[in-house]
Amino acid sequence: MSTPGRRATGVAVLGVTLLMAAGLAAPRAAAQAGHLAACERQVGTRVAANGWPVPAVDLARGSRGDCVRALQWALVGTAFVDSADAPTFIDGDFGPKTEAAVRRFQSTYPRETGGPDGIVGLKTWGYLIPAAAG
Question: What is the DSSP string of 75-124?
Answer without folding.
Answer: HHHTTSS-GGGHHHH-SSB--HHHHHHHHHHHHHSHHHH-SS-S-B-HHH
